[in-house]
Amino acid sequence: MRLFAKFFLWATLVISAALLFSGYLLITNPHENAVGRERDRALNQYQYDKFTIQAELITNAASLQNGIYGGMLNRLASDLSGSVAFFDGDKTLLYSDLPSQTDFAMLGDISDNTVADRIQTINEKSYVVVGGKLTQSGVTLYLLIATDISPVVAQKELMAQSFIKVYFITLAVSMSIILLLSALMTRPIKRLGRAAAEIAGGNYRERIPISSGDEIGDLSKSFNLMADAVEDKINALAANARQKEDFVASFAHELKTPLTAVIGYADLLYQKTLPPEQAKDAAGYILSEGLRLEALSLKLMDLIVLNRQDFTLEVLPSTALFQNVAGGLNPLLEEKKVSLHLKVSSAYIKVEYDLFKTLVLNLIDNAIKAGADDIEVIGKQSGNRYCVSVSDNGRGMPASELDRITEAFYRVDRSRSRKQHGAGLGLALASRLAGIHGGALHFESEEGTGTIVTFDLASAEGDENA
After folding, report:
1. DSSP element (H, E) containing 450
2. What does the alpha-carbon distance between residue 121 and residue 12 come to, in Å, rounded to a whole number?
3. Rounded CA gap, 272 and 280, in Å?
4. What is the dihedral of CA 333, 334, 339, 344, to 10 degrees?
């Protein structure tokens, strides 16, 4: 049974029982008091009538001693209140104007000093019957006087009928009010149930409006706190899963360029007999890229999954660094028939080697995917900063897209990106890597002309020739 039905049923039963008990007391107590007053009045009247009879017996002592009761008892009965019955000393009925159904068994309760009384219902009427024994002038009589109290009983019946009407009217009104209160009291619980179902269905933003300070309000507050904790935990799990997915996607993306270099140099070693110096250089690039991939996997894990930002920057010569980047790209450049031009001024710059190389490779790889066949990398000192720009003659981008190209998984040309197996992660990762080096990516692009990407780095005092 639902709580609404339980509350309604129990409240109705309690109110009904309370009304019935109250009605019983309101009807029974006044009735008993009224009957008690009528009984006391009948007893008092009996004493008065008894004195009247005793006076008459004194007056007619001679006739009574001769056993002549005659019309005297009839005359006495007319002078007394109520209906009367006379019995002689051996309880033989001498006179009675009581109904024939009257129970005279109460005569057995009468003694010389005892007056008995009973309430009897005779012919649908109620009487207080009072009986006693009197002895006067040598004559012994038993006297019964019945006083009609039917109006008192009728009043009880009228009160009972009125109460029944009031009872049903009150019960109907009470049930209506209880029905309304049940709906109002169980509505917050229904809201809790619906909110719990919403959260179970995945809507973790569902909350309960708090409109009271009672236990239901406290329960709603606790529910909202629980929902906040569940949402935070779900968001944390989702963020963790997303970070792992980003790491896998980013690492897979970063494998492409170095693997191209590794495969290219390995193929060169396999297909041709190279002079020792060239073979050593090719093997060196393969070893260098393999070690970089090993180190990069851990650093990308720290960056993407653990959201680490405090990587140690070391001072490296710019010329050697960019030449190393270009050397690893030779197989890819030859395959794509792309010309790469380095115009890098000598300086010492503060970088994290693996991450910086990944940054530059991403920018060049993005230019190649844009259809460029001529790429220029420029590095120059500007105050205490070292500015780097990567320009290409590729397809370019509309100005409306420039604000979004560093968003993860965002692709300007989705069909081209799919053909080239791009996921839209290159520039998003590059933007984070630029931030680690204290800079930011800035884009200038025009459709059909090409794109220029610039960022700056912190430079150290002195130069590589110092």
Report:
1. strand 450-460
2. 38
3. 13
4. 60
Name 114's bridge partners.
Answer: 111
Model pLDDT for residues 118-167, shown as the tens digit of each residue: 999 888 889 999 999 988 877 788 889 998 888 988 888 899 899 899 98
Task: For 337-401, give the DSSP string.
Answer: T-EEEEEE---EEEE-HHHHHHHHHHHHHHHHHTT-SEEEEEEEEETTEEEEEEEE-S----GGG
Domains of the chain: 3-161 (3.30.450.20), 241-460 (3.30.565.10)
**pLDDT, tens digit, for every residue of 204-255?**
788 888 877 777 788 888 888 888 888 888 888 877 777 666 656 656 656 6
**How many angstroms separate the CA atoms of 12 and 9, rounded?**
5
Say if residue 258's pLDDT is above 50.
yes
In angstroms, the CA 48 to CA 115 distance is 13
Distance from C-alpha of 50 to C-alpha of 438, rounded to nearest angstrom: 127
> Residue 72 region, left (φ>0) first, then alpha (ψ -120 to 50), else beta?
alpha
Q: Which amino acid is at 325?
A: V
Structure confidence at residue 169 as a pLDDT band (50, 70, 90): very high
State the burial class of residue 465 (Cβ atoms within 10 Å of its Cβ: 0-12, 13-18, 19+). exposed
| DSSP symbol at 424 | S
- Owner of token pair 């109002």: 184
Q: What is the DSSP string of 13-81?
A: HHHHHHHHHHHHHHHHHHHHHHHHHHHHHHHHHHHHHHHHHHHHHHHTHHHHHTT--HHHHHHHHHHSS
Tokens of 314: 């070391």
Q: Which amino acid is at 311?
A: F
Which residues, at least 6 apart from 245, have a Cβ–Cβ distance to it below 8 Å? none
pLDDT at position 457: 92
How far, in Å, CA of 33 to CA of 25, rounded?
12
- Write down the pLDDT at residue 387: 95
Q: Which residues sit opposite 446 in a β-bridge?
A: 450
Proportion of the chain above pLDDT 70, given as a percent? 85
Q: How far apart are CA 82 and CA 289, in angstroms?
A: 131
Pairing, β 374-382 against β 339-344: parallel
Whose structure tokens read 């230019």? 367
| CA-to-CA dists, residue 157 to 23, 35, 122, 144, angstroms | 12, 14, 17, 28
Token pair of 358 as six digits = 């990944």
Of 115, 81, 116, 108, the residue nearest 97 (C-alpha): 81
Name the residue among 151, 110, 112, 155 with its Cα closest to residue 128: 151
CA distance 458 to 350: 6
